[in-house]
Amino acid sequence: MRVVIASRIFAPEVSAASGILRSWAEEFHARGHGVTVLTARPPLGTAIDDPEGVRVLRVPVKRDKQQYVRGYLSYLSFDIPLFFRLLFSRRADLYIVEPPPTTVAVVRIVGALRRTPYVVRAADYWSEAAEMVTSSRFVLGALRRAEAWGLRGARMLFAAHQPLVDRFRAVGIETPAIPIGFGADTGDFRYDGQAPQNPPVFVYAGTHSEWHGAGIFIDALPAVLEKHPGARLLYYGNGEDRDSMRARARALGVGDLVEFHSPIPPAELSPILASATASVASLTPVARNEYALATKVYSSLSSGCPVIFAGVGPTVDFLVDAGHPSAGAAVDYDVAAAADAMIASASSPLAPAARAVLASWAASEYSLDAIAKQVVDTSLAIIAK
C-alpha cells in the first residue's frame, strides 16, 4: 500500500502533531507500506532527522514572526501548492491529513478527483477555536462550513478523545470517528534520575495563545514567591500572548524570574521537565475548551514530572481519574487556586524514586506507539474495503 500524509507541520518541527504523525509514519513503514509525507520546510537552522524509510518532501511556506505556520495566509501558502503536489503525484491508496480545515478541504477535493480515501487526525474543532481570534460572522461562517465539509468527506476521524467526538455529533458531523487519545514519545520523554530543583522551577511547555491563558501562572507567581523565594517560571514554545505575558511579568516585578524560550526538541525538553518541581498547563473557561485537552500533560508525566492544570475540559477528569497519586492537581482557572497548587507542589516536591515510578506508569499507559498501532490497523481496514 502507498500512504501519503499531508500536514503543514511534521518532525523535527516542535509540536505535538509532529511527534504523533511521525509515529504513524514509522508504524506504516514498519509494516511494509510506502509512506510519503508532504509537509512544510522547517524554520531555518532546524536539524533534519527523517524517519528511516519514510519519504519526506518539504516546500517553503509563509511563517509568522515566531517562525510558526499560523494564520490563514500561512495555511494557504501550504495548501495551494499541496493541491498540485497531490494532483500530479503518483496515486496513493490513502491520504492522512492534519488540519487546519483548508488543508482538509484540499485533500477532499483531490481525493474525489483521484478516487482516494482520506482520514483526518482531528485534535480540535477549529471553527469554535477561531471565535477567540475573530468576531467576523463571515469568516466564522465560512470556516465552519469548510471544516464540516472536509470532515464529512473523510472515511474516519481519529479524534483526540470522546468529548470531541460528542461535539462533532452535536454540530451534525456524523463521519465515523474513533477517540484514540493522546500520548508521549517515550523514546524522548523519559526520566533519568534527576532531582527536583531548589529553588522551585515550574515549566510551561507548548503554545501560549488566547485560549490557553498561560499568563495565569505569572499572576500567581508573586504569591508563590512569598513562600518560596527565588522560584522561577519557564515558558518553552510560542504564541500570540507572549508579548503581553512578558509585559505582565515586568509589571508585577517578577520579570527576572519568568523566562521565555523558543520551542526545543523533545529530547532537550525532557530533562528540563524531569528536574522541574512541576509542569503547568492551562485552558481558559470558554466553550471551545470544554472538550479541548492539554496534551502537554503526557510528555510531563512521561518525564517523571507532576502536572498543575488550571482550567476546564477533559484534562481535569484525566488528572482526577488518572489512577496515579503523583500525577498532579487540577484547579479552577483562578489565580489564587493556581498559586496554592504551585505552593503545595514546591513545599513537597516529588522525590526521585517517586518520579521514576510516575514516568514508568505514564510510559506504559500513554505511549504514542500504542496509538499508532490502532491508527494503522484502522487505516488498513479502510483501504481493504
Explained architecture:
With 385 residues, the protein is α/β, with parallel strands linked by helices. The protein has two domains: 2-183 and 367-384, Glycogen Phosphorylase B (Rossmann fold); 201-365, Glycogen Phosphorylase B (Rossmann fold), CATH 3.40.50. Helix content is 42%, strand content 16%. It has 14 helices and 13 strands. It has helices spanning 16-30, 72-87, 101-114, 126-129, 137-152, 162-170, 216-227, 242-251, 266-274, 296-302, 314-320, 335-347, 352-365, 368-384; strands at residues 2-6, 34-40, 55-59, 94-97, 118-122, 156-159, 177-179, 201-205, 232-236, 258-261, 278-283, 307-311, 328-331. A seven-stranded parallel sheet has the order 3-2-1-4-5-6-7, with helices on both faces. The protein has a six-stranded parallel sheet with strand order 10-9-8-11-12-13, with helices on both faces. α6 links the parallel β6 (156-159) and β7. The protein is globular.
Q: Tags for this entry?
A:
Rossmann fold, globular, alpha/beta, single chain, six-stranded parallel sheet, 385 residues, seven-stranded parallel sheet
Question: Quick recap of the structure?
Answer:
The protein is α/β, with parallel strands linked by helices. The chain has 14 helices and 13 strands.
Number of strands: 13
Structural class call reads alpha/beta
Shape: globular
Q: What distance lies between the first and last C-alpha atoms, to the nearest angstrom?
A: 13 Å
Task: Give the C-alpha Rg.
Answer: 21 Å
Give the rounded overall mean pLDDT. 93
Order of H and E elements:
EHEEHEHEHHEHEEHEHEHEHEHEHHH
Proportion of residues in helical segments: 40-55%
DSSP helix count?
14
The CATH class assignment of the largest domain is: Alpha Beta
Tell me the number of structural domains: 2
- Largest β sheet strand count, sense and barrel closure: 7 strands, parallel
CATH architecture of the largest domain: 3-Layer(aba) Sandwich
The CATH topology annotation of the largest domain reads as Rossmann fold
Strand line-up in the sheet with most strands: 3-2-1-4-5-6-7
**Stretches where pLDDT falls below 50 for ≥5 residues?**
none
| CATH homologous superfamily placement of the largest domain | Glycogen Phosphorylase B
